[in-house]
Design brief:
Structural class: alpha/beta
Helix content: 25-40%
Number of strands: 22
Largest sheet: 5 strands, antiparallel
Strand content: 15-25%
Shape: elongated
Radius of gyration: 34 Å
Number of helices: 21
Length: 512
């Protein structure tokens, strides 16, 4: 039970109220005083009849204006606000007394030292943190804020120490302890980059593997050139991220970066969206190539662009001009074009699905984004980065990755690459159940094997039926590339009679 008493600042007022409570045998648990004319009382719950008698008696006390029940005391609100803040902070935070012993610790700090709260409270922080003597620092004549490197086991951190001073009655300061905050080198680096006024470009791309380092070297060189650039790679490998980084590192960084998904542009509207629209001599709509003047236009999934839009894009690349839909005037475009695709454009040119002359125009500069399977050394650093990012975003303490989960992450095929990994971590963090470690169960990744695709957990049937399904699928994919029984038989290492029988059994023909 908590009461809020609106009252005058009168000597003896609190004593008068306490005497009323004593008369009812009520033991006071806590009392708060506010300099705004409020007194707060906390005591054990009482029944409605007692409360109905108690409130009128308190109102009769000299200097009391009103009294009412409240849900919480101001000190409780401050306590739980501080507790919530500490709980959601991504950095490890310790509050120390003047002897260097831990008084308050947040969840991130408990995970960092790998201890439970009851094991660390009232113990010297130097039991776990080496490289700085906290008790000696707190015993100095004048304790000043400091920052230094410290170690917890083999891991290095930046420690920021802030002394806690309380004012006494003579307006002097009394040392009450200190607050220690630990930051990992990775987090310090991110905060430093966030303070940079210039665009960071490639600094946002996490690189650990040698393969990605090679790609980054190529991309940095190509970013400085103003020629068309083609970025290839599987879905989710970060093609748009690299395109944006190239723009940020180029001389066009101060101008717009416009990203367009060609697959999302309907054929009927593609030309209008890209090049603009004129009606009766009046410009009704400016296209993306005009909107991006001086900057970069990124054409994602260029293989999906309509044939008519391909023709106009080819002209733009040839002489730097285009015409708006319905217009007669030539418009000069001042943009750099970066394209991306997950398809083999050379093969599409052979089948007539993509213009060969356009392919050569956009393929002046190019680099390939490796799949996550080809850069497995990046999987755990990426996981840790996404885990920290979403933990901060959703105000959830950063968790460790369990050993079993690390092994699962490294062995998984990642058909969706970095995007799939990012989404899996977001789902795991958003559905956090309070556990200290990220486990395999949290990821909920569908079963997948390279070369076979996703496994159907609802599959019903025999092994023979499953083998026939796979055999049929394999033959349907290979037959167009090896369009005779002899060629296909040679490819698969079996007789052409066996292949002919299989094609007949599965009703596979050249037309299919």
């Amino acid at each position: 039970m908590r009461l809020e008493v609106c009252c005058l600042d009168r000597v003896g007022l609190a004593k008068d109220i306490l005497m009323i409570l004593e008369g009812y045998g009520i033991n006071l648990i806590a009392i708060d005083a506010s300099n705004q004319g409020f007194l707060y009382l906390q005591f054990a719950e009482v029944n409605f009849d007692v409360l109905s008698e108690l409130l009128p008696l308190i109102r009769k006390v000299e200097g009391v204006h009103d009294v009412r029940t409240v849900s919480f005391m101001p000190s409780e609100q401050e306590h739980y606000a501080l507790k919530t803040l500490l709980k959601t902070l991504p950095d490890s935070v310790f509050s120390l007394d003047v002897k260097g012993r831990v008084r308050i610790v947040n969840e991130s700090a408990l995970m960092t030292v790998g201890m439970a709260e009851h094991e660390i409270i009232d113990e010297p922080l130097n039991h776990w943190v080496q490289g700085f003597n906290f008790s000696r620092w707190l015993s100095e004549g004048l304790v000043l804020a400091q920052a230094t490197r410290v170690n917890i086991g083999q891991n290095e951190y930046l420690a920021e120490m802030l002394p806690i001073y309380l004012p006494d009655e003579n307006e002097k300061s009394i040392l009450a302890g200190a607050v220690v905050s630990l930051k990992s080198p990775a987090r310090v680096g991110k905060q430093f980059n966030a303070l940079q006024s210039q665009t960071v470009g490639f600094e946002n791309v996490l690189v650990t593997s040698d393969k990605m380092k090679e790609v980054l070297v190529q991309a940095r060189r190509m970013a400085q050139l103003d020629a068309p650039l083609l970025i290839t790679g599987e879905t989710g490998t970060g093609k748009e991220l690299m395109a944006r980084a190239c723009h940020d590192a180029s001389m066009r960084r101060e101008h717009p970066f416009i990203a367009i998904n060609c697959a999302a542009l309907p054929d009927s509207a593609a030309e209008e969206e890209l090049f603009g629209f004129v009606s009766n001599g009046t410009v009704m709509k400016r296209g993306f190539f005009e909107e991006g003047k001086g900057g970069t236009v990124f054409l994602d999934e260029i293989a999906e662009m309509s044939k008519s839009a391909q023709v106009k894009l080819l002209r733009l690349l040839q002489d730097g001009t285009f015409r708006r839909l319905g217009g007669d005037n030539e418009v000069r475009a001042d943009v750099r074009i970066i394209c991306s695709t997950q398809k083999n454009l050379a093969e599409l040119c052979q089948t007539g699905e993509f213009r060969e002359d356009l392919f050569y125009r956009i393929h002046v500069l190019s680099f390939h984004m490796p799949s996550l399977r080809e850069r497995k050394v990046d999987v755990i650093p990426l996981t840790e980065m996404f885990l920290e990012h979403y933990s901060q975003q959703l105000s959830i303490p950063i968790r460790r990755i369990s050993a079993q989960c690390r092994e699962h992450l490294l062995n998984y095929a990642w058909p969706g690459n970095v995007r799939q990994l990012k989404n899996a971590i977001f789902r795991a963090v958003s559905m956090w159940d309070g556990s200290a470690e990220l486990s395999v169960e949290h990821l909920k990744l569908p079963s997948y094997a390279e070369g076979f695709g996703y496994f159907d957990h609802q599959f019903e049937g025999s092994l023979d039926q499953a083998m026939k399904q796979f055999e049929s699928s394999l033959l349907r994919r290979l037959y167009p590339a090896y369009p005779s029984t002899r060629q296909l038989a040679k490819k698969l290492g079996v007789s052409h009679t066996a292949i002919a029988n299989k094609l007949r059994e599965y009703k596979i023909s050249k037309q299919k």
